Amino acid sequence: MLAGRINQIYFYVQTFERALKIIEALICFYFAACPAGSLLISRAVSA
């Protein structure tokens, strides 16, 4: 029972990490495609 629960938690964590990577890629793509977004990023990095 405990092993099954650990496997379930591990599966959820893996799925969550994959979703985060997809969201991160989408955000990077959006900011790369959007000049105002890339300007905001360059300001945030330089600040």
Please tag this protein with its features.
single chain, 47 residues, mainly alpha, 2 helices, 0% strand, elongated, transmembrane helix, transmembrane, membrane
Brief characterization of the structure:
Keywords: Membrane, Transmembrane, Transmembrane helix. This protein has one domain.
Element string (H = helix, E = strand): HH
Task: Give the averaged pLDDT, no decimals.
Answer: 84
| Radius of gyration (Å) | 17 Å
N- and C-termini, Cα separation: 51 Å
Structural class: mainly alpha
What percent of the residues sit in helical stretches (DSSP H or I)?
over 70%
Low-pLDDT segments: none
Number of strands: 0
Query: How many helical elements?
Result: 2
Described by the principal axes of the CA atoms, the overall outline is: elongated
Oligomer: single chain
Strand-residue fraction?
under 5%
How is the biggest beta sheet arranged?
none
Query: How many discrete domains?
Result: 1
Transmembrane segments: 20-41
Keywords: Membrane, Transmembrane, Transmembrane helix
List strands and helices in order, with pairings.
Elements: H1 2-33, H2 35-46
What features would you describe in this structure?
There is one protein chain. The chain is mainly alpha-helical and 47 residues long. The protein has one domain. Helix content is 94%, strand content 0%. It is built from two helices and no strands. It has helices at 2-33, 35-46. The longest helix is centred in the middle third of the chain and has 32 residues, at 2-33. The radius of gyration is 17 Å and the shape is elongated. It starts with a helix and ends with a helix.
